[in-house]
Amino acid sequence: MSDELVERFELAFNQIHQHLKEMNRFPKNDNFAELLQHSKDRGVIRVHYDALKQYAKLRNAIVHERVRDGYYIASPHVEVVEELEGIKQTLDQPPLGLDVATRPVMFFYEETELLHVIEAFREHGVSQFPIYRDGLFVGLLTDAGVVRWLQESVREGSVAVEGMTVGDVLGHEKVHNVEFVAEDVSVFEIEDLFERSHGEGEKLKAVMITEGGDRDGKLLGIVTLLDLILDDDGE
């Protein structure tokens, strides 16, 4: 039984190692511990980081401290093997972006009255809404953008909000970096988008999931960095 558990452990470990190489685009230094460190803020790796560090030590003991064929100084418990295989399975078949996305997504049109959108910000506790014109995506309206517009529109201590529309405010909104992906894109691919934007110094505000990944396709869900963090924490 011990030999079988060791074989299962090593197989799952090596497959996770391969996933780490792919996550890090096959760097020259493919040491497991180094790859794990570089991937510690990524999805399932974040959740199982501490366990994987310990399993790496166990793997080294199994491989490098073997007394003789069939006899190991260290041998994994069945629970350890099953957990490692579970991590490997999640990496093989990662959840979809839609699994962590905010759904359904509320959106508004440029001609929507601003007061209606301000009320929606308060009622739903969100910080941004997609805005459309004639079925075409034109940008994100954020609560910070509305506040900025209010500050710029103060006249003699008051702001005339009555009759104003989303379109009136959208011109004062920052141009936000938004990506569009299809409904079959995985959480890991979405994480890659956020990771890449951070590395390039272009903060990604949101990932919009649409039918076929088309910019103006039917909106199915929206993913922010907060969605990914909450999902990793199991909330």
UniProtKB/TrEMBL annotation:
Transmembrane segments: none
Keyword NADP among UniProt keywords: no
Residue span, CBS domain: 101-156, 174-235
Identification of the protein by name: CBS domain-containing protein
InterPro entries listed in its UniProt record: CBS_dom, CBS_dom_sf
Lineage: Bacteria, Bacillati, Bacillota, Bacilli, Bacillales
Swiss-Prot/TrEMBL keywords: CBS domain
